[in-house]
Amino acid sequence: MTDLALVSDRTSMPSHGQRQRLQDAAFRLSTLFFALLVLTLLGGVIIALVEGSLPALKEFGLGFAFTEVWNPVTEKFGALAPIYGTLVTSLIAMAVGVPVSFGIAIFLTEVCPPWLKRPLGVAIELLAGIPSIIYGIWGLFVFAPFMQSTVQPFLINTLGQLPYLEDVFMGPPYGIGILTAGLILGIMVLPFITSITRDVFETVPPMLKESAYGLGATTWEVVWRVVLPYTRVGVVGGLMLGLGRALGETMAVTFVIGNSHRIASSILAPGTTISAAIANEFTEAVGDVYTSSLVALGLILFVITFIVLTLAKLMLLRLQRNAGT
Fold it and tell me: What is the DSSP code (8-state) at residue 283?
């Protein structure tokens, strides 16, 4: 009887294959749940933005995105100035941050002495951990006075005297403004682009670089003809991450951009961005139209970010397709 009981217990227990199938099914369901949770949260954000933007969109229509006027007294609102400031400051940030980030990444992976590589890498990563409000305070009390006394007068007296650049570098040296905000953003995106670029550069097989050096290639030729083609997908991803950070940055830009709802041809003049406008005015917004206009700014920023990420994904797919061929 005892042997029969043992046999019946063993046959009633699930086999190892059955346990594996149950574990796999539970794993698939849990990962599916998390994926659907992300989509649900994203859908909730979109619904909240659209619902909050409806009063402004009904009042101003699509012209809201192409109107510069922003007057809470008369309840006339337009998003053109914040959109302009967001795009211009992000372009300045990328123009400054990308070359510096690439230079640091190339130095760390190709030229840097071993004793300096780790401390310099840690220092770059620590920049990413500094809160944005600290960048804003430093920009307002240290960087902006330096820009006002040194950099902006130099730009006005040199580039501002050239025929096609006089409008871009004209006006009094305020210190704060679109250029200052763009430079602060360039410093902020630098550690993100540098870290990702350095990591993808280190994935290049040493044999490829050694073969190029053996054929007589210089360090620049190895980087340009071997490292960058091998890592272009990861490099584009790092650039898009930096651009996304620049588009959505709030506090640091709020401190140094001047918060003026107007479009000026000079990048030395004060301006505003979508994030800065929302942060500055949301607590003071009175009335449904005013509040809805600020929410509509958030919806526009979401659309801009979505377009940027979509273009980045299409670019990555194209690069992967070309690499496969």
Answer: G
The per-residue pLDDT of the chain, averaged, comes to 87
Answering whether pTM is above 0.70, one says yes
Question: Mind listing the pLDDT tens digit for each residue in 285-297?
Answer: 888 899 999 999 9
Residue 249: per-residue pLDDT: 86
- For 28, 209, 227, 238, 278, the CA distances from 223, given in Å and listed in that order, are 42, 9, 5, 17, 42
pLDDT for 92: 94
76-77 and 70-71 beta bridge pairing? antiparallel
Q: Three-state DSSP class for 167?
A: coil
Amino acid 3: pLDDT: 54
Q: Is 129 helix (H, G, I), strand (E, B) or coil?
A: coil
Query: How long a stretch of residues is the chain?
Result: 325
Return the number of other C-beta atoms located less than 10 Å from residue 323's C-beta. Answer: 11
Q: For 151-205, how does the pLDDT look when each residue is reduced to its tens digit (9 = 90+)?
A: 999 999 988 888 888 888 988 888 999 999 999 999 999 998 998 899 899 888 8
CB distance 313 to 241 below 8 Å: no
Which helix (H) or strand (E) segment holds residue 19: the answer is helix 16-60
Tell me the one-letter amino acid at 323. A
Tokens, residue 298:
């958030």
Radius of gyration, CA atoms only, the chain: 27
User: Is residue 7's pLDDT more than 60?
Assistant: no
How many of the other CB atoms lie within 10 Å of CB of 113? Answer: 7
Identity of the residue numbered 280: N
Residue 89 in tokens: 């400051």
Cα torsion through 25, 28, 33, 35, rounded to 10? -170
How far, in Å, CA of 124 to CA of 104, rounded? 9
Q: How far, CA to CA in Å, does 229 sit from each of 92, 200, 293?
A: 26, 11, 45
